[in-house]
Design a protein that fits this description.
Strand content: under 5%
Radius of gyration: 15 Å
Order of helices and strands: HHH
Structural class: mainly alpha
C-alpha cells in the first residue's frame, strides 16, 4: 500500500470515528427534542458513516488496483470531508 492511499485510509478511518460521535450526539438531541431537523442530520450521518466504512474497506482491498494518479485526489477528498465533519462536530457540541 503506497503512502497516499495509506493516508487516505487513515483519514477515512478518522472520519468514521467523527461520524460515530456525531451519530451519538444527534441521537441524544433527537431523544430530547424530537426535532425533524435533527432526525435528518442523524440519517445523513448514518449514510455518510456507511459510505466511509465502504471507502476504508475499498482502500484496503483495492489499494493495488487504484491508479497512482488518483491517490492525491482521494486524500484531498478525505481531508475535505474530515474538515466538514470537524466543523459539524464543533457547532453540535
Amino acid at each position: 500500500m503506497n503512502q497516499l492511499i495509506l493516508a487516505a485510509t487513515l483519514v477515512a478511518t478518522i472520519n468514521v470515528v467523527l461520524l460515530l460521535g456525531l451519530i451519538y450526539m444527534y441521537s441524544l438531541i433527537l431523544i430530547r427534542t424530537r426535532a425533524s431537523y435533527t432526525a435528518g442530520l442523524l440519517i445523513f450521518a448514518i449514510l455518510l458513516l456507511l459510505q466511509n466504512v465502504v471507502t476504508v474497506y475499498g482502500y484496503a482491498e483495492l489499494s493495488g488496483s487504484i491508479g497512482s494518479g488518483l491517490d492525491p485526489l482521494l486524500v484531498g477528498v478525505a481531508v475535505c470531508e474530515c474538515g466538514g465533519l470537524l466543523a459539524l462536530l464543533r457547532v453540535t457540541v
